[in-house]
Amino acid sequence: MSIYNRIAGQRIARIEALSDGVFAIAMTILVFNLKDPLEHRTQSDAELLLSLKNMLPAFLSFFLSFTTLGIFWTGQSTQFHYIKTYDRNLNWITLFFLMAVSVLPFTTDVLSHHINNKVSILLYWLNILLLGILIYIHWLYAERHQHLAKDEQIQAVAHAIKRRVIIAQALYGFGALLCFINTYISITFIIAVQLNYAFGILNPKNRK
C-alpha cells in the first residue's frame, strides 16, 4: 500500500484531460437552463418578447456561471503550466476541485429560479468559495512539496497566483454580502469582478 501511494496519480496529463472534460460538460449543462419560454406556438411577437423578458434571471445566471467557470478554468490551467510533477494527494485535491465544478450547474439553477432570494445568492457564493479554497490548496501543496518547475521567476509567479485567489475571494465575499441590499446588485458586482479578472480592465498594463 505504501508503494502504491507513492506511484499513484503521477500522470499530470491525465488529470489535465479530465479537468478539461469536466469544465466542458459543466459549461454545456449551463445551457440546459435556457429553454423555450413558451410551451405553445405563438403568433404574437409581444407575447414572445414578454416571455423572453421573464427569462432574464436565467440569462443572467448563465452568464455569471459561464464566466465563473472560465475564470477557474484559466486559473487551473495557469497552475498546471508551472506544475511539472504530480502525486496522489495533488490528484485528489484536483478531483475534489472538479467535484465543486460539477456542482455549479445546480447552484446556478437554484439561483436562476430564486434570483430574488438571499439564500440562493449565498449558496452560489459558497460554491465559488469552495472552488477558491481548493484551487488555493492545490497550488500551496504543489509549492510546498517541490512540484513546481525550476524557474528563476517561480517565486514571483507563486506570489501572484496566491494573491490573485485571495483578493478574488474577498471580492466575491463582499459581492455576496451585497445581496442583503439587493440580489441584482450582488450579481452585477460579482460579474464586474469576473470581467475585470478576465480582461484586466483595472490593470491595463498587465494585459497580454
Major sheet details: none
Number of strands: 0
Beta fraction: under 5%
The helix content is: over 70%
Mean pLDDT: 90
Low-pLDDT stretches are: none
The SSE string, one letter per element, is HHHHHHHH
Question: How many domains make up the coordinates?
Answer: 1
The N- to C-terminal Cα distance equals: 46 Å
Integer-rounded radius of gyration: 20 Å
Class per helix and strand makeup: mainly alpha
Shape descriptor reads elongated
In DSSP terms (H or I, runs of 4 or more residues), the helix count works out at 8
Describe this protein's structure:
The protein has 208 residues and is mostly helical. It has one domain (2-206). Helix content is 75%, strand content 0%. The longest helix has 27 residues, at 56-82.
Attribute tags:
208 residues; mainly alpha; 0% strand
Task: Give a nutshell description of this structure.
The chain is mainly alpha-helical and 208 residues long. It has helices at 2-7, 12-31, 45-54, 56-82, 88-113, 118-144, 154-177, 183-199.
Sequence-ordered SSE layout with sheet pairings:
Elements: H1 2-7, H2 12-31, H3 45-54, H4 56-82, H5 88-113, H6 118-144, H7 154-177, H8 183-199
Helix pairs in contact: 2-4, 2-5, 4-5, 4-6, 4-8, 5-6, 6-7, 7-8
